[in-house]
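Note to self: keep these together.
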Amino acid sequence: MPSVELKLPHHRYEICVEPGLLGTLGERVKQVAGHERAMLIADAAVAGTLGQKAIRALEAGGYRVVMQAVEAGEENKNLVVVSRLYQTMVENRLERKSPVIALGGGIIGDMAGFVAATYLRGVPFVQCPTTLLAMVDASVGGKVGVNLPQGKNLVGAFHQPRLVAIDTESLGTLPKRELRCGLAECVKHGVIRDAELFAWIEKNLAAILGLDKAALVELVRWNVAIKAAVVMADEKEAGERAHLNFGHTFAHAIEAAQEYGAPSGYHHGEAVALGMVAATRLAVAAGRCPAEVLKRLMGLLERIGLPTRGEALPETEELIGYMQVDKKVSGGKIRLVLPERMGAVSVVSDVGLGAIAEAWEGLR
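Structure:
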């Protein structure tokens, strides 16, 4: 199948989307990061299944593979776990040309990418996402990092992969809740960039949720193309790439308040869904966006099975406090991405705390 190519002034790579691609991983990685050894950092939940399949494919490509399984909760995406991964790499004599391959969701990709960016001042990195959320968002664009107690991804880098290898068959092993969470990012892409994509998801939602192979490939390739186009226009988030943060400033506050994935808390995609509703509600109230956009957004999120009301949100004052230490704050002002119409957004920093508080209260 044709791949999506991401071209930057200093780097280019392919994003391959194909059912069964994991079986040819070794030969594909060899083309972009040839070496005798490779480090596979895998989500512990798939290490015994997809991880073993990846090892066989990498060994067939001529690699001696060191695999390290990591529990994928946000609470584990920290410098302590990263330090253990460094130790494993040193003990197994991983060198500057040895690729680091991430197999799992966005948490694993972020962490493995940070390891690749910093070990020996940078080694080749390959993304092999296994969740819809990682496929359509986190695996593309080179943002890598880990959390501090004060917030998500406060330590990180831009480290572009050599290859993004997406096997859509891995979505068949994904819990339904995680599939829905990934769809939140697809909906986001429709709102910020492509009204046609939003309408296509509305029309084809049953096929997507039913794991129709053709629908999944179309969904992932379409979203990957959007993400790649945004990254090519603005790699380091100096302008247009900030549009991808639609809903995320609110979402990160929710996640920080619930201490990164507490069992009773929201998953990332669910927090993003709430964040998109809050941001759109704020835009409508300010006269920046037609009310029809909010109606369609909430309607689609509810059909997917994502929350549009926050049943268990902390106090608004606490949530705003987390927003004020978000890494996207500039000049002490909270920067928000607000929709103007379906398919178009803008970045604003002139929204008062009162309006932000009302948006939070509107979720309750």
